C-alpha cells in the first residue's frame, strides 16, 4: 500500500469512521485515496480550528477518539487553539497534519511550519513520521495514548513523501510503551484508608469533575453519593455526572457556582475529590481553600495529585475502577459501629444544613416584562428540552447562565470549553456532537461574540443537513469582559461593544436555514419551542437585557467565602476601602 492507503486502513481499524478537516497541498494524496474509502467519512468544515473543536465535540458526546486533519503550515497552526482546548479539558483527539517532504524540512519550503515544535506543549504527545514503515505503529500508539490514562490530544505530522511512498502493511495488535504505563488500579491500602477517613468525618462533601465523565463513571459516582448520603458539588466540566434533580445534587461549584455548593466547600471537614484538578475557578484563593478539611483525591493523572492542593489520601487510578473498589468497601463497612454508624447523626444533620442553604439561596433573578432577561432564556430552553438534549456553549456570561439554569440528567450532554475558555467553541462542537449522536437533539447556546467567530460553520450545518438548534444570547457586548469592566474598572467600558450584528433572518436565508429574531418576552417561549420542534437547523437570535451581570460571583483572587450573591452585595463590597472576608469554617455568613 502507499502511505495514504495505510493511514486510511489504520483509521478504519481504530474505529475512526468520521473525521473533520480541510484539505491542502501536501495532503492531497490522502484526500485522493479517501474517495475510494467510504468507510471513513470526511466532514469538510470551514476553518481548521473548527475541525479540532468538532473532533473535540464528537469525542465528548460519544466517548470515542475524535479525529481531525489539516494541511501543512497555516492548516496545522490553525489547530493550536483546538488542541490546547482538548489538552486542558482532557479530551481524546488525534490530529493529523500534512508536512513538506522530509528532504525539504528545515529549508523554509512553501507552507512549512515546525508543527511538532509548535504543538509540543499543547498535546499529550506528538510525532513526526520520517519512515513509512513506522506509520501503522505511530497511528496505533496515537489512539492508545489519546484515550488512556488522563485522555488528551495527540498529533501526527505526516510529510508528503510518507503519504505517497509504498510499503508492506502490517498493523500492530499491541502497544508497548515502556515510558508510558498509566496506573489503572487504585492502591488497596489507600482505598481502605479513604473509607476509614470517610467514616471519621462529620461534614463530608463530594467534589466531582470531568474526570468522572471521561471515565464513564457517572453511575458509580451516584452510587457513592447514595451509599454515603452526602451532598455532591460538580465542577463546570462535571455537570451531568449526577442528575440535576437528584436529591443529593448540591449545584455547580466555583466562581459562578451555587451558594450552597461553595458554602459546603468552606464548612466541610472532608472533601472527596473525584476526577478533578482543583482549578482556580473552583478553589478561589488557595491559601483560604478548605482550611479545615481533610482531602481524598482520586484521579488518573499522578501529576494532578498535590499540584494545587495537598491531598491527605491520594489515590491514583482509573476513576471508575477506583470508585468500584471504594463503593464495595463502603458497602461492607456501612453498618459497622466503627464504620458507617460512627458519626451518622452528625452527617445527617450536615445534609439538612446544606439543604437549608439550598432553600435560602437558590439561583435567582428579577424577571421583566419590558425586556428578555438572559436567565429566562436559559430557563425556557431547559424547560423545553427537559434534560434530553446535548447542549454546547461558547464562553462568557451565557456559558455561566447555561450552567446555572439548564438542567442536565445525563453525562456527555454538556459540552463546553472549560479550562481554556475558548470563544467560538459552541457551534463546531455541536457539529461534532450531532455526527456522534445523530438521533439526539443538539442545541448550541452561544453569545453574539463567540458566534461571530464560528459563523461560517452555518454552511457546514446546512451542507450536511444537521438539525442543530442555535440560540444566540445577544446583548451586544463581550458580556463577561463588560461585567468585569463594570465591577472592577468603575464601568469604564473599553473595546467590548458590538454595535452591529447581522439580521438572523437574512443570515439564515443566505445560508439556507431558518432564522428568527426575538426581543419581546411574551414571544420567547413560542420562539424556543418553534425552533426546537423544527425538523431542520434553526438560528434564533434572542435580544436579551444588555447589562445584566452573572451572580453569584466569587471575585478573582478571592476565597469561596467572599462570594457576592447579587449586584447589591458586589457593589457594596467593591466600594469598601478594603476587602472584608466574611464567613469562615464554622463561623459567620458568606456575603
Summarize the structure.
With 591 residues, this protein is α/β, with parallel strands linked by helices.
Main beta-sheet strand count, sense and barrel state = 6 strands, parallel
The name CATH uses for the topology of the largest domain is Rossmann fold
Q: Taking all residues together, what is the mean pLDDT?
A: 96
Number of helices: 24
Which strand-content bin applies to the residues?
5-15%
The CATH class of the largest domain turns out to be Alpha Beta
Gyration radius, in Å:
25 Å
CATH superfamily of the largest domain: TPP-binding domain
The overall number of domains is 3
Tell me the CATH architecture of the largest domain.
Answer: 3-Layer(aba) Sandwich
Widest beta sheet: strand line-up: 2-1-3-4-6-5
Helix content: 25-40%
Class by alpha and beta content: alpha/beta
> Which geometry do the CA atoms define?
globular
- Tell me how many strands there are: 18
Distance between the termini: 67 Å
Question: Segments where pLDDT lies below 50 for 5+ residues?
Answer: 579-591
3D architecture notes:
It is a single chain. This protein has 591 residues and is an alpha/beta fold. It folds into three domains: 3-164, Rossmann fold, CATH 3.40.50; 188-360, 3-Layer(aba) Sandwich (Rossmann fold), CATH 3.40.50; 374-543, Rossmann fold (3-Layer(aba) Sandwich), CATH 3.40.50.970. The chain has 24 helices and 18 strands. The strands form three sheets. A six-stranded parallel β-sheet has the order 2-1-3-4-6-5, with helices on both faces. The protein has a six-stranded parallel β-sheet with strand order 9-8-7-10-11-12, with helices on both faces. It has a six-stranded parallel β-sheet with strand order 14-13-15-16-18-17, sandwiched between helices. Strand 10 (270-274), helix 13 and strand 11 form a beta-alpha-beta unit. It is globular, with a radius of gyration of 25 Å. It starts with a helix and ends in a 16-residue tail after the last helix. Mean pLDDT is 96; it is low at 579-591.
Amino acid at each position: 500500500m502507499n502511505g495514504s492507503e495505510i493511514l486510511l486502513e489504520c483509521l478504519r481499524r481504530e474505529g475512526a469512521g468520521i473525521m473533520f478537516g480541510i484539505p491542502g497541498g501536501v495532503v492531497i494524496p490522502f484526500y485522493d485515496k479517501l474517495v475510494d474509502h467510504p468507510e471513513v467519512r470526511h466532514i469538510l468544515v470551514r476553518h481548521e480550528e473548527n475541525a479540532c473543536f468538532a473532533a473535540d465535540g464528537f469525542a465528548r458526546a460519544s466517548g470515542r477518539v475524535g479525529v481531525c486533519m489539516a494541511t501543512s503550515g497555516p492548516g496545522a497552526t490553525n489547530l493550536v487553539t483546538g488542541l490546547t482546548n482538548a489538552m486542558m479539558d482532557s479530551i481524546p483527539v488525534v490530529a493529523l497534519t500534512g508536512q513538506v517532504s522530509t528532504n525539504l524540512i528545515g529549508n523554509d519550503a512553501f507552507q512549512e511550519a515546525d508543527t511538532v515544535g509548535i504543538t509540543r506543549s499543547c498535546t499529550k504527545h506528538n510525532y513526526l513520521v520520517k519512515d513509512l514503515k513506522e506509520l501503522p505503529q505511530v497511528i496505533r500508539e496515537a489512539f492508545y495514548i489519546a484515550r488512556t490514562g488522563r485522555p488528551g490530544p495527540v498529533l501526527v505530522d505526516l510529510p508528503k513523501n510518507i503519504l505517497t511512498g509504498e510499503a508492506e502493511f502490517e498493523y500492530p495488535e499491541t502497544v508497548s510503551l515502556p515510558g508510558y504505563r498509566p496506573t489503572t488500579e487504585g492502591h488497596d491500602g489507600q482505598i481502605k484508608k479513604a473509607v476509614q477517613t470517610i467514616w471519621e468525618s462529620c461534614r463530608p462533601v463530594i467534589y466531582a469533575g470531568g474526570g468522572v465523565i471521561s471515565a464513564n463513571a457517572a453511575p458509580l459516582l451516584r452510587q457513592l453519593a447514595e451509599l454515603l448520603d452526602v451532598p455532591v458539588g460538580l465542577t463546570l466540566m462535571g455537570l451531568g455526572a449526577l442528575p440535576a434533580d437528584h436529591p443529593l445534587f448540591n449545584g455547580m461549584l466555583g466562581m459562578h457556582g451555587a451558594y450552597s455548593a461553595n458554602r459546603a466547600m468552606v464548612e466541610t471537614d472532608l472533601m472527596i475529590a473525584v476526577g478533578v484538578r482543583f482549578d482556580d475557578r473552583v478553589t478561589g484563593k488557595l491559601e483560604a481553600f478548605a482550611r479545615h478539611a481533610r482531602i481524598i483525591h482520586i484521579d488518573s493523572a499522578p501529576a494532578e495529585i498535590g499540584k494545587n492542593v495537598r491531598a491527605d489520601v491520594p489515590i491514583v487510578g482509573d476513576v471508575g475502577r477506583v470508585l468500584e473498589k471504594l463503593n464495595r468497601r463502603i458497602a461492607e463497612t456501612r453498618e459497622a459501629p466503627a464504620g458507617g454508624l460512627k458519626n451518622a447523626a452528625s452527617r445527617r444533620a450536615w445534609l439538612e444544613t446544606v439543604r437549608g442553604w439550598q432553600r435560602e439561596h437558590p439561583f435567582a433573578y428579577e424577571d421583566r416584562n419590558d425586556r428578555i432577561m438572559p436567565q429566562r432564556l436559559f430557563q425556557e430552553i431547559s424547560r423545553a428540552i427537559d434534560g434530553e438534549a446535548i447542549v454546547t456553549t461558547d464562553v462568557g456570561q451565557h456559558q455561566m447562565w447555561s450552567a446555572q439554569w439548564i438542567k442536565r440528567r445525563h453525562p456527555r450532554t454538556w459540552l463546553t470549553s472549560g479550562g481554556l475558555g475558548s470563544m467560538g467553541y459552541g457551534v463546531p462542537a455541536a457539529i461534532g456532537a450531532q455526527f456522534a449522536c445523530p438521533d439526539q437533539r443538539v442545541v448550541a447556546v452561544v453569545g453574539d461574540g463567540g458566534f461571530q467567530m464560528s459563523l461560517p460553520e452555518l454552511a457546514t450545518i446546512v451542507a450536511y443537513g444537521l438539525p442543530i438548534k442555535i440560540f444566540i444570547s445577544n446583548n451586544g457586548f463581550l458580556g463577561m469582559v463588560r461585567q468585569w469592566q463594570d465591577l472592577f474598572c468603575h464601568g469604564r467600558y473599553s473595546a467590548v461593544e458590538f454595535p452591529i450584528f447581522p439580521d438572523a433572518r437574512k443570515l439564515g436565508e443566505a445560508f439556507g436555514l431558518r432564522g428568527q429574531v426575538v426581543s419581546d418576552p411574551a414571544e420567547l417561549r413560542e420562539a424556543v419551542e418553534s425552533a426546537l420542534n423544527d425538523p431542520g437547523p434553526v438560528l434564533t437570535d434572542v435580544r436579551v437585557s444588555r447589562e445584566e451581570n452573572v451572580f453569584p460571583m466569587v471575585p478573582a483572587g478571592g476565597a469561596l467565602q467572599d462570594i457576592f450573591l447579587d449586584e447589591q452585595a458586589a457593589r457594596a463590597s467593591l466600594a469598601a476601602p478594603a476587602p472584608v472576608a466574611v464567613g469562615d469554617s464554622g463561623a459567620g455568613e458568606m456575603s
